Each structure stands twice: as structure tokens, then as C-alpha cells.
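Please annotate this fold before class:
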Amino acid sequence: MADWTFLTHHAHVLLEVAKNPDALLSDIASSVGISARAAVTILNDLEELGYVDRERRGRRNHYLVHGNQPLRHPTNATHTVGELVAALADLP
């Protein structure tokens, strides 16, 4: 099997927090198959660019995905994060 995938780790982290906004960082990292440190870096990227808000609730984080944000690549910029989540996150 090839060692590449169609989606980046950023996309996978975004999908994980969309599926479970109260997920533990370790669970997000484990689901995506990356280290906790890599997950933190990706979440910081997503937050810095306005794709995700992180709110502290006690000792845990709660995440809010901004579905109206455009995808970053120029060939996909007419589509939104919400469309990506709707297509791939298997949400009810």
C-alpha cells in the first residue's frame, strides 16, 4: 500500500474536532496517527487562521469549527470547510 493519503494531517485533525468538539488532544492525535505535539501544532495553525476556535472549559478544551471558511488551496477556494466536514465527517 502507498504511504500517502488524499487528505493532509490538517484536514484529518479538522475532521476529528468537527466530529468531537470535546475530544482530548491525545485522542485526536491517536485518531489521525500523529504525535500529540504535531496535533498541537496543527490546532494552533487552524486556530491562527480562523478555522477553529479553542475554548478552555475547566481542564479541557472545546473546539468550534468555522464551517464558512474557504478551503486554502486556490483550486478549492470556492468550497468551504463546512462542505468538507459535511462530505467526510459522517455527522448526523
